[in-house]
Amino acid sequence: MEVYGRSKDMAQASKMQRERKKRWKNASPVPDIEDPIKELSMGLHLKNFQLIITDILDATKTTKTYRLKLAPNFELKRLPLFRAGQYLSVKVNVDGVKVTRPYSISSAPSDILEDGFYELTIKIKDDGFLSTEFFEKWKTGNIVSVSGPHGNMYFDDLRDSNEIVGIAGGSGITPFRSIIREIVAQKLDLKLTVLYGSRHEDDIIFAEELSNLAGKLPDKIKVVNICSEPSENWSGPSGFINAELIKKYAGPIEGKTFFICGPQAMYEFLEKEIQNLNIPNRRIRRELYGQPDNITMNPKYPVEFKDKTFNIIVRIGNKIETIKASATESVLVSLERAGIGVDSQCRSGECGFCRSLLISGDIFVNNEIDGRRAGDKKFGFFHPCSSYLLSDLEIKIPSFKFVKFSPIK
Amino acid sequence: MSSTIHKSSSFDSSYDVVVIGAGLGGLGAALNLALSQKSVLLLEQHNLPGGFASSFVRGRFEFEISLHEMCAVGPPEGPLKGPIRYILHDESSVDVEFVPVPEAYHLILTGKEHKVNVKLPFGVENFIDTVCSAVPETPRESLVKYFDLCRECSEALTFVARSKGNIDYKILMAKYASFLTTSGYSAAEVTNKFGFPKKTLDLLYPYSCYMGLPASRLDFTIWASLLHLYITQGAYIPKGTSHQMCAAIDARIRELGGQTEYNNRVQSILVENNKVIGVETDDGEKIKTNYVITNCSPHLVYGKLISPANAVPEEAYKLNNSRRLGVSAFVVYMGLDASPKDLNLESYGYFISPHMDTEKINKSMLQCENMPDLTASICLNNAIPNCSPPGTTILSITTAFGIDIWKNITPETYFATKNKLARQMIEQVSKALDSPISEHIEEIEVATPQTFSRYTGSFKGGVYGYDLDPWDSLVIRSQVKNKEEFFKGLEFAGGFAAMGHGYNSSLLSGRQAARSVLWKMKKEGG
Asked: How many CB pairs under 8 A join A and B?
């Protein structure tokens, strides 16, 4: 084979070698380390950053809205932007016990552009780790460590209909408040009807604000409050959100996308109702509700294990610790109780951030959301946040030394 | 509850070799070192192995992140068995299964002047038959000669790689004369000599898109080798996604006594007198070693990792700056609630474009106002039917962008930009295949250069190493490798190493780096 004649062809390779040398010789000696894509990335997500509480508002008797801005010493141009509906993973250190909690951002992305804040609206309840006293210690000026924003429950025009039906329960209203504020601020071409279930009318979060926002754009936004145990003065719909109420307030089901966010009990009730409505899978997005309050309520949970305690041998690199764990708490919670700092995000089995190696032992995996990759199942990896002990375990967890958990004093 | 601490350090105080990054290069290196019974520590900043060779789960779907098809795997037995299969199965007993891809590619050109809808098969003869029947004016004998030349170049490249810098030119001259006369030219320069009609070239060139360069810049030898290997050996994918393959390699490394640690970012490679002495993790833990194999780019290694920074010679920065960073990718992943049949998706891999002019295609990747001309789509179910639940389909559509093209995208414009481009790509594929894709999207994710940067830390969000121009070809790289080692004990693996990017090259480069370290250890009597 000859390209331009044998002698020229035979010299071509050396010519190219000289070309390379020439380019090397003439190149700039200044290291090229500028990375605009990394900068873009940091404007959208961060593994760990610090916020400061600037305001606290009582949303209801048991719910507070915390306004958070960038902590003064944290070098960043602006808070990472997000898609309305996403959450932050909050990392706190309670008397040496490091825990994380996912909270939907209740403010809108446009609030960052205008005023540089996120808002988290949190129902103050004792969940075993974070007590009501803990939240009382969360004061203006406190630093809060977070990661994110994360999460998959947001409107995506490639997938979703622009007619959305939101079904919210309790503090599950928070992502919808974000979406509603965004529709108003950005004049989005989006229609949203939210059916919002609360127990009493006193428990309705953002009642006035959402009604005002809906009033501004009555063709686009509708919020229907439904109380399960209202007072005598309540004139609105009552009971649990069911197929009938959905049909009544959301109109025809065809062509609409459903977003659901609320407590575990609401999902359990709604699943049957939704089946009656024949909504295709692709038209339903569910926000995760975090770890279940009580795993023994899962019909597949082997109840004979419920009172047992086991040992876990925990490896982090070459470090080895042995801890005691109760069968009805997730492996992640057991690690946290033992003071082993494990980072996590969704705490629902989905995101895989706490992915760890199961060296030996048996676990029950909460089947409701098993986000494990096929290869991970095959090679013994598991998600501690959605796994429960059925025997003593030996596990290897990744180290998360770089994550700051902010202590609250 | 109580806890007992038995042992308090995460790492041993020293290792024979520390590997930075568990991409395919790092995994390949650590695997070979563990197999050779060296103490090896593999450190990865992410919580998963694989780098781009990974997967993610959304709803009831598990998506392949970057793999289209692997080269150099070949059938399980016989003369066409490839080096990847040999290394993973025969040499290292890794528990991975490969599934053949049914056809080379399904090419659809939608332009006015030349409409094409042809499925190109594997096997040189079948391939040539298909090209000649689709474009009857193809000079068949020239095409046969062309494939013969590709075979010769591919075999010569293997010969050169095995010579480790001490090439026997007598053998090269006698057996691979045409390799020598074509080496240093671009794919276009050599191919144009065959006088193929443009319509024939349209059918021949699609694979070149995998290299991210137009035919006028892509080194002929690598192109010839790629075409030859794909068409003769076929293409394969690992069963259960490439994450499963990487998890299998990770498991095997540990089984052989190697240590793999995730969520451990290396902050610095410590050097003294131009010699590697250890690494330091991001929380300040120092680990002693005389050998570091890095899966990171030289840009990152010389620009940020070497400590002290003033130990880096100016020559290293200049070398980095003289080379061209390869492209980044843009991928739309979809889980669809209809079967491939209902979606009119009959093939595994599609190349779709208005035309197959590689210059024009490359130019269209240098802006992000609109989608580039060419997309490469994969319908995973057509290689692995049960990869998603019955009645569903996994479809991904990929295109590429030049490395700096996304630099002016801001967080405010990011989501709109990515959705606009994704929508255009879905429309292109829908229209070309008469497929009602958008009516069936149950899950969708879009990965941009930003996404690749976020998860892998790759420089500027690139997914490839340095471009394979004729002046930076594999042959030249293998000849100059020794002269470009600025630190004793430091080796590169992965897409930025001498063998170039791609799944098989990255994996093989890891093994090559490990062999190089082992040879140096032996020489030092260690």
From this structure: 262
CATH of domain A297-399: 3.10.20.30
Nearest to B461 among A37, A158, A320 (CB): A37
Chain B residues with CB-CB distance to A339 below 8 A = 3
Distance from CA of B247 to the nearest CA of A (A): 6
Taking CB atoms and an 8 Å limit, are A320 and B318 in contact across chains? Answer: no
* Chain segment A78-104, per-residue pLDDT in tens: 999 999 999 999 998 888 788 899 999
Q: Which chain A residue has its CA at the smallest distance from B8's CA?
A: A319
State whether ipTM is beyond 0.90.
yes
pLDDT in tens, B480-504: 888 899 999 999 999 999 999 999 9
> Which homologous superfamily is A39-150 in?
Translation factors (2.40.30.10)
Would you identify the CATH topology of the domain A163-286? Rossmann fold (3.40.50)
A402:B282 CB<8 A: yes
Which residue, of B234, B261, B284, is where some domain finishes?
A: B234
Any domain includes B116: no
CB contact under 8 A, B410 and A340: no
pLDDT per residue over B377-399, tens digit each? 999 999 999 999 999 999 999 99
Task: State the helix-helix crossing angle for B124-134 and B220-233, rounded to 10 degrees.
Answer: 100
Buried b (16+ CB within 10 A) or exposed e, A301-320: beeebeeeebbbbbbbbebb
Rg of the Cα atoms in chain B: 23
The range of the structural domain enclosing residue B515 comes to 17-75+240-324+465-523
Torsion of CA A285, A289, A295, A300, to 10 degrees: 0
Query: Quick check: A373 pLDDT over 70?
Result: yes
Instruction: Report yes or no on B115 lying in a domain.
Output: no
Query: Are B260 and B306 within one domain?
Result: yes
Q: How far apart are CA A167 and CA A273, in angstroms?
A: 12
pLDDT of residue A51: 96
A263–chain B nearest CA distance, Å: 19
The type of residue at B174 is A
Nearest by CB: B247 against A1, A323, A379? A379
Residues in chain A with CB shorter than 8 Å from the CB of B394 are none
